[in-house]
Amino acid sequence: MSFFQLLMKRKELIPLVVFMTVAAGGASSFAVYSLWKTDVILDRKKNPEPWETVDPTVPQKLITINQQWKPIEELQNVQRVTK
Question: The pTM is what?
Fold first, then answer.
């Protein structure tokens, strides 16, 4: 008995199959979308410390209210010493 014959015999399974197919498709498309975003880093060999390339003058949050972004002197000194 094939899958479609089973669905035609038990019609109450059709909505379940449709919802599961849509959910699996949505989850798969979101996973692929997440991999192509620039926030996700998969190649750690080229840039093992990606947080050092973040510009401190650019806010990284969705909402920033009255916040000043300043470089931290101690971190700047550590970066200069390690490079």
Answer: 0.46
